[in-house]
C-alpha cells in the first residue's frame, strides 16, 4: 500500500534538503557526513533491482521518512518566522507609539524597593 | 517544550573545566544557578536553555563502546543530564550531526528534533520502564482515532469508512486480531485477546524503539495508525492525513476562499523524528515521530484560518 515512488526521487529530495541546510553554513554540501552516508547507502542498495528486496524497501522507506522530517522542519521554521508574534512592546515603546514619554523619577517609584 | 533542551556538561563544575555550561534559562539573565552555589533559585527540571551562540565549527561522529558519539569541535556532546550522548546506529548519528551542523550563529533547539528525542531516550526523565511505556501506549487503543466514528454528516461518515476501514482491515489481518470500529460514545470494544497480542508485540521492541513508538501513538492518537507506520504500511504523510481526517474534512468544507495554512509540517516533523527510534529489536535508525503538540498548537492558532 505504500507508494513511495522511485528511490531516485527520494534521493534527489534528500540532497536538495541537504543543500538547503548547507547553504546556511556556507560549506559545500558534498562535504557533509550526511551526503556521503546517503550516497553510499543508496549506491550499495541499488545493486539489487528486485522490487521485492526487503532491505532496499526498508532503506527507501527510512530515507523517505527522513526526507519528510527535513522538509517539515524547514517548512515549520519558515511558518514560524512568518507568523510568530514578536512579543509585546515594552512600556517605553508603547508610550512612544502614542507620542508620550515615561516620567523620569530619579528617586524611584514608591512601590519599588 | 520541556524536552527540547539540553545542557552540555553538567552543572556545578568550575567554568574552565566545563566550557559548555548553559545558563538557567527561565530565570532571566545572569542567574547561573549552578556556578553560584549561594544562589537558591530553583531550576526547572529538564528546562529549555536560553539561546546559545554557536560555539563550535565542526561536527564529527566517532564510534565509542556503546555506540556512536557526536563531537562538537573536540568536545563530546552530552545530554541534559550530563550523560554521554550515544546512539546505537550510524544513520541516527549522521542525522543528529546534520542537525548540529546546520545551525548558524545561534543554536535553535526547537529545530533539533532528533537530538531532543535522543536526549529523552537517553535520560528518560519521566523514569518510565518498558511496561509503563507499553501501558501508556495501550491506553490509546481504547479510543483509537480510526475506530471512533461519527454518525453524521454523511460525507464524513463515507470518508471515514473509505479511508480508515482499509487500515483496520490491514491491521486485523497482519496481527490476526479483531479491532472493529464503533460510533458508540464509549469507543470501540476491543477484546482482551487483541490487547494481549499488541502488548506482546510492543514488548518485543527495545527501549529506544518503545520511546519513539509511544510518541508516535501520542501524536497520532491512534495505535492502529502507528502500527501501520511502523510496519511501513503507511508513509508519514499518509498517517498524518488519516489521523487528521476530520480536520481536513472541516477545512475542505470551509466557505472561506482563503488558503488554509495548516501547520501540517509540524506534525510531519514530529512523526518523522520518532522513526529514528524505531528499528526492530536491535538498533534505531528509523525516523518517525511523535512529540508533544504544544508548539504545534501555538502555530496552529496563528496559522490556521478557521471558518467563521
What is the share of helical residues of chain A? Answer: 55-70%
Radius of gyration of chain A: 26 Å
Number of strand elements of chain B: 6
What's the overall average pLDDT of chain A, rounded? Answer: 80
β-sheet strand percentage of chain B: 5-15%
Question: Biggest sheet of chain B, open or closed, and with what strands and sense?
Answer: 4 strands, antiparallel
State the order of secondary-structure elements of chain A, H for helix, E for strand: HHHH
Q: Low-confidence segments of chain B, ≥5 residues, pLDDT <50?
A: 1-41, 275-308
Q: What is the 3D form of chain A?
A: rod-shaped
General description of the model:
The complex is a heterodimer of chains A (113) and B (308). Chain A is mostly helical. Chain A is 62% helix and 0% strand. Chain A contains four helices and no strands. In chain A, α1 runs antiparallel to α2, α1 (7-25) packs across α3 (54-83) and α2 packs antiparallel against α3. Chain A is rod-shaped. Mean pLDDT of chain B is 70; it is low at 1-41 and 275-308. Chain B is mainly alpha-helical and 308 residues long. In chain B, α4 packs across α7 (223-230), α6 packs across α7 (223-230) and α6 packs antiparallel against α10 (264-274). The two termini of chain B are 31 Å apart. In chain B, β2 (59-63) and β3 (68-72) form a beta hairpin. Chain B contains eleven helices and six strands. Classes of the chains: A mainly alpha (113), B mainly alpha (308). Chains A and B meet through α1, α2 and α3 of A and β2, α1, α10 and α11 of B.
Question: Keyphrases for this structure?
Answer:
heterodimer; A: 113 residues; mainly alpha; rod-shaped; B: 308 residues; four-stranded antiparallel beta sheet; two-stranded antiparallel ribbon; 11 helices; disordered C terminus
Amino acid at each position: 500500500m505504500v507508494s513511495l515512488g522511485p528511490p531516485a526521487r527520494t534521493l534527489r529530495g534528500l540532497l536538495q534538503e541537504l543543500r538547503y541546510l548547507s547553504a546556511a553554513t556556507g560549506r559545500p554540501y558534498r562535504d557533509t557526513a550526511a551526503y556521503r552516508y546517503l550516497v553510499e547507502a543508496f549506491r550499495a542498495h541499488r545493486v539489487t533491482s528486485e522490487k521485492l528486496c526487503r532491505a532496499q524497501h526498508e532503506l527507501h522507506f527510512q530515507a523517505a521518512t527522513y526526507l519528510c522530517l527535513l522538509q517539515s522542519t524547514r517548512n515549520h521554521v519558515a511558518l514560524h518566522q512568518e507568523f510568530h508574534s514578536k512579543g509585546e512592546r515594552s512600556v517605553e515603546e508603547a508610550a512612544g507609539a502614542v507620542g508620550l514619554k515615561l516620567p523620569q523619577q530619579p528617586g524611584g517609584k514608591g512601590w519599588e524597593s | 517544550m520541556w524536552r527540547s533542551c539540553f545542557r552540555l556538561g553538567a552543572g556545578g563544575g568550575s567554568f574552565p573545566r566545563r566550557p559548555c555550561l548553559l545558563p538557567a534559562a527561565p530565570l532571566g539573565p545572569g542567574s547561573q544557578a549552578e556556578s553560584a552555589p549561594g544562589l537558591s533559585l530553583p531550576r526547572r527540571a529538564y528546562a529549555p536553555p536560553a539561546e546559545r551562540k554557536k560555539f563550535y565549527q565542526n561536527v564529527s561522529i566517532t564510534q565509542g563502546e556503546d555506540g556512536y558519539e557526536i563531537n562538537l569541535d573536540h568536545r563530546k556532546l552530552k545530554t541534559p543530564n550530563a550523560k554521554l550522548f550515544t546512539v546505537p546506529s550510524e544513520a541516527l548519528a549522521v542525522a543528529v550531526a546534520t542537525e548540529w551542523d546546520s545551525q548558524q550563529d545561534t543554536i535553535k533547539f526547537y529545530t533539533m528534533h532528533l537530538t531532543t528525542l535522543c536526549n529523552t531516550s537517553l535520560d528518560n526523565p519521566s523514569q518510565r520502564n518498558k511496561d509503563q511505556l507499553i501501558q501508556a501506549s495501550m491506553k490509546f487503543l481504547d479510543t483509537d482515532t480510526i475506530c471512533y466514528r461519527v454518525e453524521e454528516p454523511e460525507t464524513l461518515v463515507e470518508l471515514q469508512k473509505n479511508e480508515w476501514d482499509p487500515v483496520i482491515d490491514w491491521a486485523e489481518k497482519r496481527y490476526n486480531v479483531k479491532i472493529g470500529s464503533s460510533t458508540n460514545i464509549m469507543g470501540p470494544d476491543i477484546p482482551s485477546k487483541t490487547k494481549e497480542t499488541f502488548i506482546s508485540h510492543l514488548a518485543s521492541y527495545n527501549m529506544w524503539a518503545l520511546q519513539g513508538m509511544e510518541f508516535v501513538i501520542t501524536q497520532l492518537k491512534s495505535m492502529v495508525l502507528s502500527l501501520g507506520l511502523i510496519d511501513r504500511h503507511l508513509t508519514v504523510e499518509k498517517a498524518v492525513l488519516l489521523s487528521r481526517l476530520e480536520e481536513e474534512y472541516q477545512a475542505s468544507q470551509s466557505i472561506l476562499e482563503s488558503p488554509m495554512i495548516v501547520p501540517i509540517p509540524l506534525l510531519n516533523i514530529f512523526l518523522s523524528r520518532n522513526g529514528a527510534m524505531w528499528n526492530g529489536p536491535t538498533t534505531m535508525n528509523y525516523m518517525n515521530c511523535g512529540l508533544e503538540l504544544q508548539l504545534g498548537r501555538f502555530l496552529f492558532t496563528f496559522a490556521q484560518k478557521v471558518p467563521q
